[in-house]
Amino acid sequence: MLELRLVQGSLLKKVLDAIKELVKDANFDCSTTGFSLQAMDSSHVALVSLLLRAEGFEHYRCDRNLSMGMNLDNMAKMLKCSGNDDIITIKADDGSDSVTFMFESPTQDKISDFEMKLMDIDSEHLGIPEAEYHAIIRMPSAEFAKICRDLASIGDTVVISVSKEGVKFSTRGDIGAANVVLRQNTTVDKPEEATIIEMNEPVSLTFALRYMNSFTKATPLSNIVTISLSSELPVVVEYKIAEMGYIRFYLAPKIEE
Amino acid sequence: PCLQRKIMDYFKED
């Protein structure tokens, strides 16, 4: 038996909006730790890892580990039927081939339930090693989204370079080229407006902007994004989900042939 | 020309 009650139901809608462009079908894993998902895009170039910790739910019951295969477009359709202030409860019985989403209005005067069929999904679970990164950039998520959007209108790929000067986002296309340089800036009114660049070693990597732009669909989940770069690893673009967990996107770089 | 690497090139199956 599984019963997860999330008071801030809108959070689940935002999570779905953040990942459904990248991944079509995925297994949601439920354990005593929390509600999680790990899935790759169909080209196996990007990977998303989601964790919503058990402590973040008002009520969390998961009698045994359960993996529920869901089509994310269908799940988003169901969640769209909830009100923005609704409490969402996810329920499933052991061995059941369906999951139920229950929506309660804040004043308890409207209660709906939507049952969705589960599906069998063959998915490989990858081990993500703990790693030291050459550089870690922490910046406003809206600024990162704007840079990715702006550069995608010029080129298809972005080179992210971190040096003593700061972090540079560069692209090149048929109509021209663009460079955006950000310097560390901690003299801001609010901590979430700061740009912090932690560099152990200079690093420069090339990534497809299409994927970066897809990751920025998670912007409504957090004011801050953290970008971790290492020349030997996929980049990690992380959005923390307040008091609950995170969405991490991993993207394999493009390399010179 | 750039070659797009895959996630599997870096992370192994559990």
Structural class of chain A: mainly beta
Evaluate the radius of gyration of chain A.
20 Å
Report low-confidence residues of chain A grouped into runs of 5 or more: none
- Structural class category of chain B: mainly beta
Task: Count helical runs of chain B.
Answer: 0
Kindly state the mean pLDDT of chain A as a whole number? 96
Flag low-confidence runs of chain B.
none
Strand content of chain B: 35-45%
Arithmetic mean of pLDDT of chain B: 89
Tell me which oligomeric state these chains represent.
Answer: heterodimer
Extended strand count of chain A: 20
Helical fraction of chain A equals 10-25%
Net shape of chain B: rod-shaped
Could you tell me how far the N terminus lies from the C terminus of chain A, measured between alpha carbons in angstroms? 51 Å
Total count of helical runs of at least 4 residues of chain A: 4
> Could you tell me the number of beta strands of chain B?
2
